[in-house]
Amino acid sequence: MVGFNKIMVIGNIGTEPEMRYTPSGSPVTSFRVATSRSYTSNDGERHQETEWFTVVAWNALAEQCNQYLAKGRRTFVEGRLKSRQWDGQDGQTRYRNEIIASRVLFLDRNPAQNSENEPSTFESGDSNNYNFSDTPADKPIETDDLPF
Predict the structure, then answer these.
(1) Would you tell me which of 35, 108, 117, 136 could form a disulfide with 11, CB atoms 3.0–4.6 Å apart?
(2) Amino acid 129: pLDDT
(3) Domain extent listing, the chain
(4) How many helices (H) and strands (E) does the chain have?
(5) Residues β-bridged to residue 115
(6) Quick one: fold of 7-126?
(7) Tens-digit pLDDT profile for residues 79-95
(8) Measured between alpha carbons, how far is 102 from 122 in angstroms, rounded to an integer?
(9) Are the C-beta atoms of residues 76 and 55 closer than 8 Å to each other?
């Protein structure tokens, strides 16, 4: 049975990207992204809630994220959700959901760098990228092909 696991978030980077290397030498970069949602409760009071996501990028994508991303930048992250568990130093089992990034886009400009030298999209070379279209995106859709 084939499954599908994809998550996309837009938010602000809340921590400086941290790059490290696995024992085999593969680069891995992690950072946190905050997304916020505003709403009005039944009593008319305005609320805002923030959700934090841990993002993990591997290999060339990890190197690019480490080089160009910074705390406070606005970003779009696309990837798959992965759950991890481990035993903490206190003996308690800990859980974390992570986004394993396959694509990262900048949604703002880095004021410290020349925009001509800075790429705005990074993609993983991972073969697990999902593409459900066999036709070009600019091909017109025939109304006879629509299911409704």
Answers:
(1) 35
(2) 38
(3) 7-126
(4) 1, 7
(5) none
(6) OB fold (Dihydrolipoamide Acetyltransferase, E2P) (2.40.50)
(7) 999 999 989 999 999 99
(8) 8
(9) no
